[in-house]
């Protein structure tokens, strides 16, 4: 099935053709774009569906990967505790980071899962301090 979307303002994100007024879609894919007259002349047939957008703006689809970019950035600044399999291993990892960190600077860690701890013990605030 071929569909011509006409009478619109399509933002293409292509510097050579940043804005066009008509787009041709075939089998769910954009196959041509340009002026309304050109698209109707090249693609207009009896078996083509034509949709008038009445001057509306159209932008490319934005796909949300649901990435929390700031959280990802913070993970690179934090101590990765995801591989710790015991309270002692977790505390040792934090202690190593503390030895490389200036006094008074906070150390942040993330990713630990107490369900992986073979000893089933959780660190106390006093141990972490």
UniProtKB/TrEMBL annotation:
Gene3D superfamilies: 3.10.310.70, Urease, subunit C, domain 1. GO terms for molecular function: hydrolase activity, acting on carbon-nitrogen (but not peptide) bonds. It comes from the Bacteria. InterPro entries: Amidohydro_3, Metal-dep_hydrolase_composite. Residues 49-129 form the Amidohydrolase domain. This is Amidohydrolase YtcJ. It comes from Brevibacillus fulvus.
